[in-house]
Design goal:
3 helices, 10 strands, alpha+beta, six-stranded mixed beta sheet, about 200 residues
């Protein structure tokens, strides 16, 4: 009799663990929503055509890539200083021309992650957005990639992300509401780097 109850307890524990994982992973593993396929339906649309940016002599070309499938359906807003550059999700990319100089590039999902990067005119840069499991939604983390690694990540991205007018407005709202969080993230990184 004791063995029977012990087996049932193990089964309940395993079921509870699987249920917890399913609840947390659900938003990150969900499929593409229909509102992303049409211009007016959401913040961004994803195109099969994969245009590439042209390097301009007076601007830096910045690619933002999300080649991984983890968190595929979770959209991340990507900004440079206080300007929205794009919105993407798994297996997508976008690019933008950025004025040369030192900038704060940041991403907003459940959290805010930021990095400072000095860009030069006529050069190409690659920033990868990593998505990690958070409490109930995906968390974003940014990484600057070298040229070879950046091109490889870009090749894995199957869709070009294009913001809609609604996406641009939402990006402006995020810039207003979370610029302070961005500075706090940079300060946190600086303290961490000092300790190491």
């Amino acid at each position: 009799m004791n063995r029977k109850w012990k087996g049932l307890g193990t089964l309940v524990t395993v079921f509870a663990l699987l249920l917890t994982v399913a609840i947390q992973a659900g938003p990150c593993l969900a499929g593409e929503k229909d509102d992303d396929k049409e211009e007016g339906g959401g913040y961004v649309r994803f195109e099969d055509e994969r245009p590439m940016g042209e390097v301009q002599p007076d601007k830096a070309l910045v690619y933002v890539v999300r080649p991984a499938m983890v968190g595929f359906a979770i959209k991340s807003f990507f900004l440079c200083d206080d300007e929205i550059l794009g919105i993407n999700k798994g297996h997508s990319y976008f690019f933008s021309q950025v004025a040369p100089g030192k900038h704060v590039f940041w991403s907003k999902s459940e959290n805010v992650d930021a990095l400072e990067l000095e860009v030069s005119a006529g050069k190409t840069y690659y920033i990868q957005q990593h998505v990690q499991m958070g409490g109930f939604r995906a968390r974003t983390k940014l990484e600057v990639l070298g040229e070879a690694e950046g091109k490889t990540a870009l090749d894995k991205c199957k869709k070009h992300a294009v913001m809609t007018a609604q996406g641009i407005e939402k990006g402006k709202e995020i810039a207003r509401d979370h610029l302070k969080d961005t500075q706090e993230d940079l300060d946190r990184r600086a303290r961490k780097d000092k300790k190491e």
